[in-house]
Structures are given as C-alpha cells and as structure tokens.
Amino acid sequence: xTGAEATAECLKAQGVEVVFGIRGLHITPLAHAxxxxxxxxxxxxxxxxxxxMADAYARVTGRIGVVMAATGAGAACTMVGIQEAYxxxxxxxxxxxxxxxxxxxxxxGDLHEVKNQHGLIVNVTEGCYDIASAHDIPATIREIFHRMxxxxxxxxxxxxxxxxxRGEIDLRxxxxxxxxxxxxxxAEKLREAVEAIVGAKRPVIYAGGGAIASxxxxxxxQMAELLNAPVLTxxxxxxxxxxxxxxxxxxxxxxxAVRPLLEQADLAVVIGTRFSNRSTGKWxxxxxxxxxxIDIDEQQFSKTHPALGARSVVExxxxxxxxxxxxxxxxxxxxxxxxxxxxxxxxxxxQQTLEALRRGFPQEMKLLDDLRAVLSGDAxxxxxxxxxxxxxxxxxxxxxxxxxxxxxxxxxxxxxLPAAIGAKIAKPEHRVVALCGDGGFLFSCHDLATAARYxxxxxxxxxxxxxxxxxxxGQRKAGQLDGxxxxxxxxxxxxxxxxxxxxxxxxSLDEIGGALERAFRRxxxxxxxxxxxxxxxxxxx
Length: 541
Hints:
Elements: H1 3-13, E1 18-21, H2 28-36, E2 40-43, H3 47-61, E3 65-69, H4 73-77, H5 79-87, E4 92-98, H6 117-122, E5 128-130, H7 137-150, E6 156-161, H8 162-166, H9 187-198, E7 203-207, H10 209-213, H11 217-227, E8 231-233, E9 248-250, H12 259-263, E10 267-271, E11 290-295, E12 312-317, H13 320-331, H14 343-360, H15 362-374, E13 380-383, H16 387-395, E14 404-405, H17 416-426, E15 432-437, H18 438-444, H19 448-453, E16 459-463, H20 469-477, H21 492-498, E17 502-505, H22 512-522, E18 526-530
Parallel strand pairs: 1-2, 1-3, 3-4, 4-6, 5-6, 7-8, 7-10, 8-9, 10-11, 11-12, 13-14, 13-15, 15-16, 16-18, 17-18
C-alpha cells in the first residue's frame, strides 16, 4: 500500500464521496487512489473553483467538503476559496501535496517549491497538519475529522510530501471513523439560561450560521413558538426557520419598521453568530441589553463589535441543537406561561417593510418575487457578490436551511458559478441556480467547462451592467469615478455556447421567470444574460 492509497482508504472510511481538484503532478497518485475506491473526483479548471465547490458541498450537506491541490501554485490557487470557507465557518479539508521531505527548506528550486506552503495554508485554516510518516496518515485524518465535527466548523489543511504519497509502506489499516458527541453547557449555566427565559416577557431570537450548521432548525422553531419570540437571522442564518413563518423576520433587524418592535424586547436569545458587518447593517442592529448567547466557539463571546455589546450576558458554550433541546426540556418542567409578541404584530412589521420596498424599488423587488415564484422551497440559490445578490441577501424569502449560499465571510467574487456546481453535485435532485454579475462571472467562467463535462444542469442568471457594480457605486457616491471604469466584456451568449452550454439573452427583468422555467425544462447547463443595471439596496445607499 502506498501513502496515497492509505489516505484514500481513510477518506473512504470517513464517508467522503466526492473530491474536487486538479490532477497536478505531485497529487496525481492520490487522485487515482480515491477514484479507484469509488470516490468521485471532480476535475475542475481552476483550483480556486475547486475550493468554492467543496465549500458549497459542505454548506448544503452539512458534511465535510474535500479539495485536493498540487504543491505550490495549485495549493496557492485555493487560498481565496479556503479563506471564504474559514470566514464563513464551512468545514472544508484541503489536501495539498508537498515536495520530497529531503528537499524541504533547502531552496534548491525543486519542482513547485514555495518558500513556506505550510504557512500559506495555516493562515486561512483552523490548522494545517504535515505528515511526517505514512504511518501517521490514519491518526492524523481521524483527528482532523474529529475536530471538524466537534468544534466550530472550519477548514483544515493536510500536507503530504510527494515521496510519502508514492512510497510503499507496510501498513495494516484499521481505520475507525471519527465521531463526535454534541456538547452541552454545564448544568448550572443551563439553569441560569432557563431562569432568564422564564423571567422574560418579550424575548427575541437571533440565529446565525451556527444554528444551521448544528441542524437546529426544529428546536429554534419550537423555542420561538413556545415563547412567541420573533426570529431574526444573520445572512448565513437565513432559512433557519421558513421565512414565511409568522414569527420570522429574517435579516430585517435593522429596518425602520422593525426597530420599534425590538425596542419592546427584554431578552435576546443569540444562537451561533459573530454579528458580522453586513448581517447587522454595519453593526447598527439594536437588540435588548440582556442576552442569552449560545455558541460552540467560546472565543466568539469576546469578539463581538462593541456597538452591539450587551450589559448582561449568559454565555453557553455548546452545540446549538443539544443546548436548545436541553433548555426546552427544562422549561417544560416549569409552571411557565409565556407572553411574547403577538404574531400578527410580527407579520405586520415584516409586511410593512417589504411593501415599502416594493413601492420604492419596484423593479428590484419584483425580481426577487419572480425568482421565488419559479423556485421550489428546497431550491438552492448560489449567490455571487453583485448588486442583484445584495438584494437577495436581505430580502429574498428563504424557505429551508442550507438552500441559500452567499460568500458572506470574505465577500469575495467569483463564488456563484462554482458554488452552484458544488451544490448541484451534492444535491442532484434539487433545483440549483447561480446568480452572478458580469465582473464576478469572469473570475470563474472557465468552470462552465466543468459543469458541461459532468452534465451539471444549472441555470446561471448573469446580470450584466458592464461594471463592478457595487464598487462603482461606492466610488460614485464618494465622487471618485475617473470615467474609465466600464468593463470590456465578451459576448456572453457566444462564450457560454462555446463551452457547450445553452444560452440566451433577455431584454427585461420581466422575462426572468420565463427564462428560468425554460432552463429547468431543458435540464442542462444554461446561461441567461440579463443586460440591466439595478439600483443598490437601501442599506448600501
């Protein structure tokens, strides 16, 4: 058995079914080994896309996404995607090859040698493990998977030297997959939290991506319905309960109509969020001064922006699902009569917010309504970072968890197309659509070839305003446009068709619903160019 075969055996035993990457010279033995063991190897056209695909695979499945990259340039090309996974708390394993061990740190100019590949990887991951001996492979992979399953979901790196991957070893493999027991806070903390809840008259819930990562949707809904508590979310938390639910306020917490309702609240139950800039309207969100906060990552408690700081916080370190379930069980033993908010009041402020937007921004809001009308509740929307998706991140109605992908962590562009490919490979039975701008699309359009090769049937809505729209808006607002910002674009319809995709150009936002329906009926890769300039949403204005 070679080191590559041992690695592939461990991945297979750990339940890995798909790997994304490119067969660079040093990583080729591992690519062959995983394929021989029935693991699907999706060969992409750029390693950055491989990282985005693995990230999306992880987000929609809750499992670990795996990306493989060759030494040096291959590993370096994944960095933007791995950084996005880190910033968005997505469990992605980057397996990178390395030059021969005896050549490390010598500076001899070995093939693909870089100054410090380990340092490159460790800067965008929770940790990077270097294999010193092939015999260390099983224990190291098991430790990585255990850490990913037990703590905050984040990417990890694994470096394996070329001579270890190729070398024969006498190894009797008896790999036991890593398993994790959901952690719950200490009993005293749970009691303190329950006392806070039963003593509150009008609690609200704020749920982030950690609630979705934990699979906490059911218990969040149970807690909300028990307490009559409105549920606010971060962008990554959208869909934790259906946004058609009478208690859901989605990511509307900083809207003018919602603020008076929040002023009546006396307790915030905060679940798995870091309160990022974009999710909180540049930290303008105002929750009540008393918090009950649940997070798997204890360090997160001390990292909250001071503008959001609470005067009194009960901090609970633990898995969101297990912690909320324990709290619900304890509350059930109490003689507790919840008050909360009338659901009609919650629904009214939500409708007031959306109707005001429909009056002020009819074109942009109709776009969101038309998208929702065509897409089933479990359809997956993969957003790039562009003007259209700055609307979806707050105002698009999400019905199920793990169906709304946005590069919130690092705010990168180029995410939309590869994320849609990764999501569709993970969930082939679901409808998946990519929302891209012309600027970001050209960061990853080469992976239309990947989608065509693997028959990934997704429509791509390409909003073409010949601009880096959000950037141009910011400069225009500051009076800093120089007049040379317009992007020189290709003929996107011809470009898409040259990759083997179906493609069409529509001329009005009113045509989007019909174009999407045609694309889904075709059941093949389709690019729909939408040559239109949208206004930015009011939170950017």
